[in-house]
């Protein structure tokens, strides 16, 4: 409002007839410059020179709470989000809630076209799987992109539980295709989540802390569903396939699956699901940074090509994996922030006004005890509503 008044005053002053003075002097002596119809304005207090009018050209897009933490952000006109500081590892307790919310979120009536599109695209890609795989590997050879996904071990600490070998190791890629493939590696996403956590801790930035928490929540939720589908479908990976497009060993036993994992774990892709969950969480929490989605989707495309080139996945493994990562990313973000409904006042920093609405209770606090009498039985029941 103040800025608009400045331009109105400036335009009015420059539209007056010249009287040998400057625009500032005209503003200070309105009787000498204005026609008789505005002479009555002489009785009003003298206006300040235009150069002396304070113009606030900066708008604060975040506010700090009483503890000095950045908790409220305005990311667009009329769109303000409030973020609470997450408690350590509380995201792990949210995973059952997210798994419970997933069916209602994904299988809504408005998602019918999307679900049909996922099914149709998966079938079409399955028909063309072998041709797509062969073309991808031929192209890799043409440009000199080695298909081997080899990594160099920087840290290796042996660890065993009974007969199971579970070493702690940290590897880095040692060729270009491996670098693309590494975009979907768990270490990559752990590094991204940790970076938000460190930044949020240093800057007292609740949005960054919530982003880190939501990444852990979305990635773990996605991984559980992906692993469940892998162990149900049992599809061969291309590099161990015994026929075109691979075989499907439905419902392999746990022992059979663990005996030779590549023979059963192609569908759906966990790397693409994890990468999509990461991009979705970051992009939804930082919508004012418009480069996040184009950059993220481009990197996911390179990841997808690398897994065709090295024979880890078929193209038809991708649609369901990408959709799962997107859905769980959306669920995690939706539960990790609240909308602040406050009128926009351009004279005040955005994000102030109404207190944020009460956060919904987490799933494990929604259970309610109720006494009951049923025939000869008396007691109490515990009900949980998703």
From TrEMBL:
What Pfam families does its record include?
PAP2
Q: Which InterPro entries match?
A: PAP2/HPO, PAP2/HPO_sf
Ranges of residues in domain Phosphatidic acid phosphatase type 2/haloperoxidase = 215-338
What is the recorded name of this protein? Phosphatidic acid phosphatase type 2/haloperoxidase domain-containing protein
């Amino acid at each position: 409002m103040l800025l608009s008044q400045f331009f109105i005053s400036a335009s009015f002053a420059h539209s007056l007839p010249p009287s040998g003075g400057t625009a500032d002097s005209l503003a200070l002596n309105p009787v000498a410059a204005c026609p008789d119809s505005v002479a009555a304005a002489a009785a009003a207090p003298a206006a300040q020179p235009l150069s002396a009018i304070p113009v606030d050209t900066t708008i604060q897009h975040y506010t700090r709470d009483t503890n000095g933490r950045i908790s409220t952000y305005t990311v667009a006109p009329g769109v303000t989000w409030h973020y609470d500081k997450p408690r350590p590892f509380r995201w792990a307790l949210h995973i059952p809630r997210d798994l419970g919310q997933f069916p209602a979120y994904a299988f809504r009536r408005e998602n019918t076209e999307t679900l049909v599109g996922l099914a149709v695209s998966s079938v079409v890609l399955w028909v063309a799987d072998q041709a797509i795989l062969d073309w991808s590997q031929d192209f890799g050879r043409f440009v000199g992109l080695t298909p081997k996904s080899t990594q160099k071990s920087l840290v290796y600490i042996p660890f065993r539980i009974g007969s199971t070998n579970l070493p702690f190791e940290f590897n880095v890629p040692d060729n270009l295709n491996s670098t693309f493939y590494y975009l979907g590696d768990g270490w990559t996403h752990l590094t991204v989540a940790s970076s938000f956590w460190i930044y949020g801790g240093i800057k007292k930035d609740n949005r960054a802390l919530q982003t880190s928490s939501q990444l852990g929540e979305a990635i773990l939720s996605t991984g559980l569903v992906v692993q469940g589908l892998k162990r149900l479908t049992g599809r061969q990976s291309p590099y161990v396939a015994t026929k075109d497009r691979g075989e499907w060993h439905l419902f392999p036993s746990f022992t059979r699956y663990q005996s030779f994992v590549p023979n059963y774990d192609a569908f759906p892709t966990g790397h693409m699901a994890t990468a999509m969950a990461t991009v979705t969480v970051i992009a939804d929490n930082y919508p004012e940074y418009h480069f996040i989605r184009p950059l993220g989707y481009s990197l996911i495309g390179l990841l997808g090509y690398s897994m065709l080139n090295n024979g880890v996945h078929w193209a038809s493994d991708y649609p369901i994996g990408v959709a799962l990562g997107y859905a769980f990313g959306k669920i995690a973000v939706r539960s990790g922030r609240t909308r602040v409904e406050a009128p926009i006042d351009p004279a005040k920093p955005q994000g102030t006004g109404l207190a944020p609405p009460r956060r919904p209770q987490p799933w494990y606090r929604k259970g309610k005890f109720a006494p009951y009498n049923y025939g000869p039985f008396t007691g109490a029941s515990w009900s949980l509503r998703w």
